[in-house]
Amino acid sequence: MSHRITVAAGDGVGPEITNAVLRILDAAECGLVYEHIQVGEAVYRSGNSSGIPAEAWEVLRRNPVFLKGPITTPQGGGYKSLNVTIRKTLGLFANVRPCRSFHPFVPTLHPGMDVVVVRENEEDLYAGIEHRQTTDVFQCLKLISIPGTEKIVRYAFDYARANGRRKVTCLVKDNIMKLTDGLFADVFRRIGVEYPELQQEVQIIDIGTARVATQPDRYDVIVTLNLYGDIVSDVTAELTGSVGLAGSANVGDRISMFEAIHGSAPDIAGRDIANPSALLNAACMMLAHLGLAAQAATIQNAWLATLEDGMHTGDIFRGGGSEELVGTRAFADAVIERLGRAPRQLQPVHLRGGAMPRTEYVRPSVRRECCGVDVFVCDTDSTPDELAAKLQAACDGLLQLKLVTNRGVKVWPGGFPETFCTDHWRCRFVSPAVEIGAPTPNYQPIDVAAVPALLARLHEAGVEAVKTENLYLFDGERGFTLGQGE
Ligand code: NAD
Question: 267 in ligand 1 pocket by Cβ < 6 Å?
Answer without folding.
Answer: yes
